[in-house]
């Protein structure tokens, strides 16, 4: 952790919120609480959040990278819809900087984001509007996906932008590790909600068997050494080796690079079958 920048990467899962009695994932929950303590101690002025999309915010047009100038959160998992406190001038300045740096990005306004953005804000910051946040969407779901080298270049350009900011900045990457949600295993962008729900229900049992702890360990090891070559190799091969949901580690690469490329230490790892995901959290401590 640099004095004015903290990087935190953490898995998300709708299953964690459905488990209202907190029966499952005890080790991960405890590690996530410790991670929240690190964030609280850092006390950021601004959050830059790299998140994916589960084919909800972006369907007909799917940018590889997008900066949101204003955004809300979809009602999901027992939560009502909400709004994010997006500092529009800073977000626009970031978008301009990325384009000037040779990173082709889209900008979006009033975009409705899902748990990929909502869950890390609730878990790590405390609420959707607890801190000003610039959402940066990385396509992790709908082929063709950006190559890891371009994701790292995006993060590097964001780091250059943040170097000129006076605030204490929390950079978050969210998603992964290994998992393969049934709704993402098929290349369909226009799933009816009822069809999506049926696919998830019918594929739940098989999805519980698709966590790959060995792949997760290799990724976390490369992250702890900030081995860009190995991280890129694992990310570009994530879908085949660790499932469709593992593509979300692109957000971890972007966040790590945006934090200046410092090693990210694993704070917790637990494969939670009920959540169909290898759950982890890591930080630049």
From TrEMBL:
<dbReference type="Pfam" id="PF02900">
    <property type="entry name" value="LigB"/>
</dbReference>
<dbReference type="GO" id="GO:0047070">
    <property type="term" value="F:3-carboxyethylcatechol 2,3-dioxygenase activity"/>
</dbReference>
<dbReference type="InterPro" id="IPR004183">
    <property type="entry name" value="Xdiol_dOase_suB"/>
</dbReference>
<feature type="domain" description="Extradiol ring-cleavage dioxygenase class III enzyme subunit B">
    <location>
        <begin position="8"/>
        <end position="278"/>
    </location>
</feature>
<keyword id="KW-0560">Oxidoreductase</keyword>
<protein>
    <submittedName>
        <fullName>2,3-dihydroxyphenylpropionate 1,2-dioxygenase</fullName>
        <ecNumber>1.13.11.16</ecNumber>
    </submittedName>
</protein>
């Amino acid at each position: 952790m640099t004095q004015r920048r903290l990087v935190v990467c953490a898995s998300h899962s709708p299953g964690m919120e459905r488990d209202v009695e907190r029966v499952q994932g005890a080790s991960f929950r405890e590690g996530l609480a410790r991670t929240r303590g690190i964030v609280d101690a850092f006390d950021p002025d601004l959050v830059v959040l790299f998140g994916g999309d589960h084919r909800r915010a972006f369907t007909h047009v799917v940018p590889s990278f997008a900066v949101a100038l204003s955004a809300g959160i979809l009602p999901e998992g027992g939560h009502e819809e909400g709004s994010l406190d997006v500092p529009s001038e800073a977000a626009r300045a970031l978008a301009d900087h990325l384009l000037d740096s040779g990173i082709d990005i889209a900008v979006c306004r009033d975009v409705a984001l899902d748990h990929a953005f909502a869950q890390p804000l609730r878990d790590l910051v405390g609420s959707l509007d607890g801190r000003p946040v610039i959402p940066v969407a990385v396509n992790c779901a709908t082929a063709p996906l950006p190559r890891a080298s371009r994701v790292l270049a995006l993060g590097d350009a964001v780091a250059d932008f943040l170097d000129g900011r006076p605030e204490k900045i929390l950079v978050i990457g969210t998603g992964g590790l290994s998992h393969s949600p049934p709704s993402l295993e098929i290349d369909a962008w226009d799933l009816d909600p009822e069809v999506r729900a049926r696919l998830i229900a019918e594929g739940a049992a098989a999805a519980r068997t698709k966590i790959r702890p060995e792949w997760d360990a290799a990724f976390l090891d490369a992250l702890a050494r900030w081995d860009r070559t190995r991280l890129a190799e694992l990310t570009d091969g994530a879908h085949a080796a660790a499932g469709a949901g593992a593509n979300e580690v692109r957000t971890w690469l972007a966040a790590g690079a945006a934090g200046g490329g410092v090693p990210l230490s694993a704070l917790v790892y637990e494969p939670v079958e009920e959540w169909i995901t290898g759950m982890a959290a890591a930080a630049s401590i």
